[in-house]
Amino acid sequence: MTHLVDGLQGDKLALEMEKTSDPWQRSRLVGEKISQLAKEFSKLTKEQKDELAQRAEIELKAGTELMKKDKENILELLKTVMAPLDP
User: Fold this and answer.
1) Beta-carbon neighbour count of residue 61 at 10 Å?
2) φ/ψ of residue 80, rounded to 5
3) Are 3 and 38 a contacting pair, CB within 8 Å?
4) CA distance 33 to 38
5) Backbone torsions φ then ψ of 33, nearest 5 degrees
6) Which of the residues 2, 40, 42, 49 has the least number of beta carbons within 10 Å of its own beta carbon?
7) What is the pLDDT of residues 61-70, one digit of tens each?
């Protein structure tokens, strides 16, 4: 997944997408890019795949922590909004 995300974030694909407003053409561009990335991934060594997996795990943990903090903030805001008003 990390390899796929990295590959789809490139400026080249974004520029190609901006050149057309046709959704079918955009879909074809994305499909071609995903196919290219899949071929690249299959050629990676075990060590390279392990490095990607480690990076993905770190990013997942960081994302989970951010979501936890966001959830806590939202719950605190909800408590504040839903609290009865004291006269």
Assistant:
1) 10
2) -65, -45
3) no
4) 9
5) -65, -40
6) 42
7) 999 999 999 9
The amino acid present at 5, given as its one-letter code, is V
Q: What is the pLDDT of residue 87?
A: 58
Mean pLDDT of all residues in the chain? Answer: 91
Does residue 24 register a pLDDT over 70? yes
Side chain identity at residue 70, one-letter code: D
Tokens of 67: 């979501």
| pTM, two decimal places | 0.65
Rounded to whole angstroms, how far apart are CA atoms 51 and 53?
A: 5
